[in-house]
Specification:
The chain is mainly alpha-helical. 81% of the residues lie in helices and 0% in strands.
């Protein structure tokens, strides 16, 4: 029997299981330090493999569609932070201050790559533009997110200086990514044929970070500080943010006259936030004991966006095929 689209996937179930494990048996002391080192290695390997997988053609393939990419950039790095700040007086009473700090953090993160492209493909959108836009968002996030963290999330500089944060992210994330990309002519084929390896490393590294982060947070008393009412409030906050983001990207894309295929790309790339980039960045940007509360809103938002976008992608996919021909004609016109 096929699983309902409204039920969580296996990875989400694994995330919940890891949170429960860290809550019951948190890793502290020497064990905690071991998991910290193991997590650092796993994250480096993850970005190394992503660098080896991503082709230069994919990076350059849709770069000429600058209006689409600019709108996605504005949605990701301007609209989301502005929404987070404007809604703070209304939504803060629903959650704890620490959780709303996590909400602001998810607002300054780059777009996700894999699921944005997958949903764009499912909905018959502009896939080359989605690959380019989502990949560019991830790469730009290395530089933009630390700056926005210090401007939006912790204006008093509690997360450290932007330059220092950028340096640490470059060292831990981008150096392995660039190394993998430079070695792509020799190992790219192997990585492509062994896609399951990347999936295991991708999900395994996130699970390690979540376990390490929540272990430190639980030891510091996370669950004593986060009541059930705050978790329910956080669900409302995430739903409101996603609904506004989806509404904004859809309205602006149609208002500016983008084709349906481009609209799909804008909606799925401009409304999503990256769990794969967000959790490793949080580990660099924030103190270990604070990471658990910081990433909790991101984890919840991630699941909500997957469920909502799955429904939206299926609705887009049911449109008449004539829309695809109109998209191709539009592409030939601007080429």
């Amino acid at each position: 029997m096929a699983r309902s689209r409204f039920l969580p996937d296996n990875f989400t179930i694994a995330l919940v299981a890891v949170v429960v494990l860290a809550s019951l048996w948190p890793a502290g002391g020497a064990t905690g330090r071991f998991f910290e080192h193991l997590t650092t290695v796993a994250i480096g390997l993850l970005f190394f493999l992503h660098g080896a997988k991503l082709s230069r053609e994919a990076i350059l393939g849709g770069i000429t569609h600058w209006r689409l990419h600019l709108l996605v950039f504005i949605s990701t790095f301007v609209m989301f932070p502005v929404l987070g700040l404007l809604l703070r007086p209304v939504l803060t009473p629903l959650v704890t201050p620490e959780l709303y700090t996590g909400v602001l953090y998810l607002c300054v993160l780059p777009a996700t790559v894999q699921s944005a492209i997958a949903f764009t493909s499912m909905a018959r959108g502009n896939i080359p533009a989605a690959v380019c836009s989502a990949s560019a968002s991830t790469l730009l996030g290395v530089f933009v997110t630390p700056v926005l963290v210090n401007l939006v999330v912790v204006p008093n500089g509690a997360a450290g200086s932007s330059l220092d944060a950028i340096w640490h992210i470059l060292l831990q994330l981008m150096v392995p990514f660039i190394a993998g990309h430079l070695l792509r002519p020799w190992i790219g084929g192997f990585v492509k044929r062994r896609a399951a390896i990347l999936t295991v490393v991708d999900r395994g590294s996130i699970l390690l970070v979540v376990y390490t982060a929540f272990s430190a947070a639980v030891i510091e008393g996370l669950w004593k500080q986060v009541p059930l009412s705050a978790l329910a409030g956080l669900l409302v906050v995430c739903v409101v943010l996603l609904a506004l983001a989806l509404g904004f990207t859809t309205f602006v894309a149609r208002r500016l006259g983008f084709s349906k295929a481009d609209e799909i790309t804008i909606v799925f790339c401009g409304s999503k936030k990256s769990l794969a980039s967000g959790i490793p960045m949080a580990k660099v940007l924030f103190a270990s004991q604070a990471v658990g509360a910081i990433v909790l809103p991101l984890m919840l938002f991630h699941q909500i966006q997957l469920m909502a976008c799955a429904v939206i992608a299926q609705r887009y996919a049911r449109r008449p095929a004539v829309d695809d021909e109109a998209m191709r004609a539009h592409a030939r016109k601007i080429a």
